[in-house]
Amino acid sequence: MTADTLAAPRAPHRAPRKGVNLEKWGWIYMRVSGVLLVVLILTHLMVNLVLPENGVHALNFAFVTGKFSTPFWQWWDVLMLWLALIHGGNGMRTIINDYVHNQKVRTTLVAVVWIVVAFMVLGGTWVVFSFDPCFDGLGNPFQHEAGSMLAEMCAAQ
């Protein structure tokens, strides 16, 4: 029997390999993270776009600054970021495994996917936790209007 054919339905069952079944845990992760992401994203959209008084028009730099000043929303966004990027990376790994038949190319592509996911997770996490609305170094493009709440807050620091 070659690798491209299926065993007959009544063929003797092969004993499972020893160790952790990464495919099974990847499959479980996709289901659990998918459900969590639906809850996280729908809540994110409600809080950002539906519940504010002006709806989507309330979404601006000050709104984001207010959310990122709260550890709860920082962790909410980081959890959403991690789950979404790992979910997407695992999905890409599955697609590569299904359609790329050359073992070296498949291994290389999967490694590239996980490297990109790792950089994006680290970069996004760094941005969320190091966000500073008052940063004025290196030519900050956000000029604080005199009399604005953000300008007053940054001047008080």
UniProtKB/TrEMBL annotation:
Its main location: membrane. Keywords: Cell inner membrane, Cell membrane, Electron transport, Heme, Iron, Membrane, Metal-binding, Transmembrane, Transmembrane helix, Transport, Tricarboxylic acid cycle. Pathway: Carbohydrate metabolism; tricarboxylic acid cycle. CDD domains: SQR_TypeA_SdhD_like. GO terms for cellular component: plasma membrane. The chain crosses the membrane at residues 28-51, 71-88, 109-129. Its cofactor is heme. GO terms for molecular function: electron transfer activity; heme binding; metal ion binding. The keyword Cell membrane applies. One of its GO terms (biological process) is tricarboxylic acid cycle. It comes from the Bacteria. It is a multi-pass membrane protein. It is found in: Cell inner membrane. Pfam families: Sdh_cyt (PF01127). Membrane-anchoring subunit of succinate dehydrogenase (SDH). This is Succinate dehydrogenase hydrophobic membrane anchor subunit. It comes from Microbacterium paludicola.
